[in-house]
Amino acid sequence: MHATLPLPTSDVDLFADDVLHDPYPELRELREAGPAVRLTAYDAWVLPRDDHVRAALADHESFSSAHGVGYEDQFNAQTVTTNAVEQGRAAAAGLLQGASARPYRPDPYFWTEQSGLDIKISGELPLTGTPDILAGSVNDRSALLRWRHDADTATAVAVNHRLPVIKLKRLGAGVPAPAPART
Questions:
Q1: Residue 172 vs residue 120, higher pLDDT
Q2: How far apart are CA 169 and CA 90, in angstroms?
Q3: pTM for the model
Q4: Closest by Cα among 121, 120, 38, 106 to 75
Q5: C-alpha–C-alpha distance, residues 102 and 90, integer Å
Q6: DSSP labels for 94-144?
Q7: How far apart, in whole angstroms, are the C-alpha atoms of residue 67 and residue 160?
Q8: Listing from the earlier edge strand, what are the strands of the sheet with 142-148?
Q9: Which residues pair with 119 in a beta bridge?
Q10: Quick one: residue 74, left, alpha or beta (phi over 0 = left, psi -120 to 50 = alpha)?
Q11: Domains in the chain, start-ordered, CATH in brackets?
Q12: Quick one: pLDDT band at residue 80, thresholds 50, 70, 90?
């Protein structure tokens, strides 16, 4: 028979004004409680020790952020699908127009340049299945890819592939790819 140990929990509110002003006593309390502590106020787990945080970040199969990293579903949906320009426009409209401003609808487009790759993505994440290769070659590190999610939606990804953003967004919206030009 195995003994079950109680899991450490805490009612610490990491976002309370006094904790934000001086977080060290609460952080010390969490570190002393254990390597993983459930925050009852948020129904979330925290890893308060540096070595455990590093181990979790290195183990992407067990600790995935593919479905978000926030406490609210709305925050998670926007984490990887919005860009600064769109957010700025929505914030300005909210300040200037108040309640009459249109609700913010994130544009599922983002881009990054990392490790010699220029990557642009239009559409919903995460990606599953095998993409259609619309142009280029993955082996050549220059490709235009599309993942179909259902009959009406898709995600388009350009990797080191020059393509106007509007065309990538059309592919991400599920618009059919143009037929290749005859040569």
A1: 120
A2: 20
A3: 0.47
A4: 106
A5: 8
A6: HHHHGGGSPPP----EEEEEETTEEEEEES-SS--S--EEEEEETTTTEEE
A7: 26
A8: 109-114, 117-122, 154-159, 142-148, 132-137
A9: 112, 159
A10: alpha
A11: 9-63 (no CATH), 70-107 (no CATH), 108-176 (3.30.390)
A12: very low
Q: Report the percentage of the chain scoring pLDDT > 70.
A: 80
Q: To which residue do tokens 């609700």 refer?
A: 103
> Cβ distance 121 to 156 under 8 Å?
yes
At residue 113, φ and ψ (nearest 5 deg) are: -125, 110
Please give the helix or strand (H or E) that residue 28 lies within, else none: helix 24-33
Residue with tokens 């183990």: 59
Q: What is the pLDDT of residue 105?
A: 73
Amino acid at 137: S
Output the six-digit token pair for 168: 């990538």
Omega of the bond leading into 103 within 30 degrees of 0 (cis): no
